[in-house]
Design a protein that fits this description.
By secondary structure, the protein is mostly helical. It has two domains: 89 residues, Helicase, Ruva Protein, domain 3 (Orthogonal Bundle), CATH 1.10.8; 48 residues. It is elongated, with a radius of gyration of 30 Å. The termini are far apart.
Amino acid sequence: MKRLLLIALLLATPVFAVQPDEILDDPVLEQRARDLSQGLRCPVCRNESIDESNADLSRDLRILLRERLVAGDTDSEAVQFIVDRYGEYVLLRPDNTGANRLLWAAGPVMLILALLIGLRVVRARARATPAAELDADEQKRLDEILRS
């Protein structure tokens, strides 16, 4: 029973795709690599970090990241190297600078714009004059049309 519980607990932990041959000997560098790779998106598996992805490209990016750290790059330099090669798409949390500000603001601006347009349409309908009542001839003609 204890073994079954232990196996269940081990299976419930998050699974990382980092292979043993990728792990650096220096635990400090390895931890830096893990922290950075959790913020980088796998270009193949959408919204999955390269740390969690089993894709070959993610493996290559993890190795490249570790090579840059071993070469002496700072965290920002190593990430920037990968961003320069693959674009800002690889960042799971893009910066809020430059053209990205437009993208960050587009959602709330569109929501406010849609609410204002909806409010204007509702008010315009409320102010619209109701249709005039049909006179006797029009009502008679409508009844004929509906019967046929």
